[in-house]
């Protein structure tokens, strides 16, 4: 089965065409949304399509074949991820229009975290709120963390049953996941992708009392606050740039804002990894992926340097982000075919 994977992020649209049994795409591209339909229509022999969908809510705990009912349900979930879900659904509709005969499967970033124990998934908020509005910690980057959960045991030659893995997805968005016996047992993102680590332009976790104070005392509108938390905070808010490479270069040259940004980022990363280690009761492998996780040896070294007391005997690995292969695997599983791709090589750090 040849699978086209469609990965619509908040600022990018990535396509990959994968043959069964091969890790290398037969074709791949990163394009603008308006190019999607003609680009897909020009491709040859697409047997199925897999779409990355950010939010599956409590309804979708696994990948699912798309039909009219599923499509309506996904639209209703857009309010939980207003920056991401509409873009994913727009891409889905465009591809379905270009390939009306190809079966399509929705693969969810939240699904891998459906296994979170209640203690990790539950906010200490009124029960009426939690039940009425489905408030819980959903977690995100699940396709990436699921890929790590499959790859690390294969690369180490060990059973997933015996491994406690901390997966570090560090890109423009960033999250950690504690993986025990191949399942997510804790993660840093919550009800939205804003919770957790410092990111390129997102704040990560802040005191909710601070946000209430800003709304009540400063005259900031809700939309202004949301814009600042999503697009004007994180590395950008601390240093003036959202690019980790520039932050590290400026910090090395003595720029104090960049030094602060680097140190805040690393501090939050270290404490997050330590929290994931506590959820696991010990770490056997620490895996870095994502643009920053793969390319910045300095970030990896600084993070691990502060965790020596947790990392004795643990393997530290660097793996490429291959959400496309995880999507293709889930598509074949849902459609009942074999031949999912294997794991790529990894570097030891």
List keywords for this structure.
14 helices; 349 residues; Nucleotidyltransferase, domain 5; six-stranded mixed β-sheet; alpha/beta; 17% strand; globular
Detailed description of the structure:
This protein is an alpha/beta fold. The protein folds into 2 domains: 3-138 and 323-341, 2-Layer Sandwich (Nucleotidyltransferase, domain 5); 157-318, Nucleotidyltransferase, domain 5, CATH 3.30.420. It has 14 helices and 12 strands. The protein has helices at residues 36-41, 68-76, 85-98, 118-121, 127-133, 142-156, 208-217, 222-231, 234-239, 244-252, 256-280, 290-295, 297-305, 323-334, and strands at residues 3-8, 13-18, 27-30, 48-53, 64-65, 104-108, 164-170, 174-180, 183-187, 285-289, 315-318, 347-348. The radius of gyration is 20 Å and the shape is globular. The two termini are 35 Å apart. Residues 338-344 have low confidence and may be disordered.
């Amino acid at each position: 089965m040849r699978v086209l994977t469609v990965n619509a992020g908040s600022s990018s649209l990535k396509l990959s065409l994968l043959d069964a049994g091969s890790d290398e795409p037969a074709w791949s591209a990163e394009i603008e949304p308006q190019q999607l339909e003609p680009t897909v229509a020009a491709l040859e022999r697409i047997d199925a399509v897999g779409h990355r969908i950010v939010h599956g809510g409590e309804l979708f705990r696994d990948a699912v074949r798309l039909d009219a009912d599923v499509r309506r349900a996904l639209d209703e979930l857009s309010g939980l991820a207003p920056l991401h879900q509409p873009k994913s659904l727009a891409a889905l509709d465009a591809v379905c229009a270009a390939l009306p005969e190809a079966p399509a499967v929705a693969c969810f970033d939240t699904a891998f975290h459906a296994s979170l124990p209640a203690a990790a998934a539950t906010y200490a908020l009124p029960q009426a709120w939690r039940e009425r509005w489905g408030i819980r910690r959903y977690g995100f980057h699940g396709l990436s963390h699921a890929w790590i959960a499959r790859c690390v045991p294969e690369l180490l030659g060990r059973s997933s049953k015996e491994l406690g893995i901390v997966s570090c997805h560090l890109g423009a968005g960033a999250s950690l996941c504690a993986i025990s016996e191949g399942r997510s047992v804790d993660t840093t993102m919550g009800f939205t992708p804003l919770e957790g680590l410092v990111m390129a332009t997102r704040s990560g976790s802040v005191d909710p009392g601070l946000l209430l104070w800003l709304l009540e005392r400063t005259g900031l509108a809700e939309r202004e606050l949301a814009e600042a938390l999503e697009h004007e905070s994180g590395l950008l808010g601390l240093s003036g740039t959202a690019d980790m490479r520039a932050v590290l270069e400026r910090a090395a040259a003595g720029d104090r804002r960049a030094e602060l940004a680097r140190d805040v980022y690393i501090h939050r990363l270290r404490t997050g990894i330590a929290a994931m280690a506590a959820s696991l009761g010990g770490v056997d492998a620490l895996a870095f992926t994502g643009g920053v996780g793969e390319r910045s040896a300095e970030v990896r070294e600084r993070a691990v340097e502060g965790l020596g007391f947790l990392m004795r005997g643990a393997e530290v690995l660097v793996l490429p982000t291959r959400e496309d292969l995880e999507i293709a695997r889930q598509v074949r599983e849902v459609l009942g075919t074999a031949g999912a791709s294997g794991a790529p090589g990894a570097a030891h750090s």
